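A quick word before the example. In earlier lectures we treated sequence and structure as two separate objects. From today on, think of them as two lines of the same record. Here is EPS15 factor written that way.
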Amino acid sequence: FSPQVDSANAGRVLASDAAVFLKKSGLTDLVLGKIWDLADTDGKGVLNKQEFFVALRLVACAQNGLDVSLSSLNLPVPPPRFTDTSSPLLLSGTASSDIPWAVKLEDKAKYDAIFDSLNPVNGLLSGDKVKPVLLNSKLPVDILGRVWELSDIDRDGMLDRDEFAVAMFLVYCALEKEPVPMSLPAALVPPSKRKPISVPGAMPLIPSSTSTKEPHQSLPPVGILAAKAPLTQ
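And the structure line, produced from the sequence above:
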């Protein structure tokens, strides 16, 4: 264990410490909650070394588009990636600011035209305006919920021009049968949104043995899209 997560050097990790650390993976609270539930096998809110390694492995699975499940643990995946410039122990790979944006210029022009046609207010589109465009793709509602969640990078419930381009890019990928990732790859983060990620306190990740049925956090993206189809977790 590094001192970052095992501050008391007791060979175990408390939920609050693990939450701050795992948040740096860039995964959503919902996915991290699922990872915690699978790793904390006895539901005590504490991970031993073996359980913590399971959590890290599941983070790596999620970051590479695999299902967060114990059956994924045996699949070959690269090590998990965490963003923390202050620590040499955490892998951040190439500095994200150096990676070219995955959205090509000619595609961005098309996405901008759609964006402008939806009458943005102050350069922003509300979920209500984006919803018909997403539903028009005929993709499953759970996939569209994840598209929204990944593209609303600043979590304000609105999409600006760059965030909308990310949403459209993910929709077109999904239509080409490419899996929508569980977390936004560095290359897809718009240059305008690239900055060091700060982690304010522990995230609201409350592990409990009964929490597998309940979402850990209410998700507006799923809410705006699940008008007809019920969502299974």
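Notice the following. DSSP finds eight helices and four strands in the chain. We will return to this example when we discuss secondary structure assignment.
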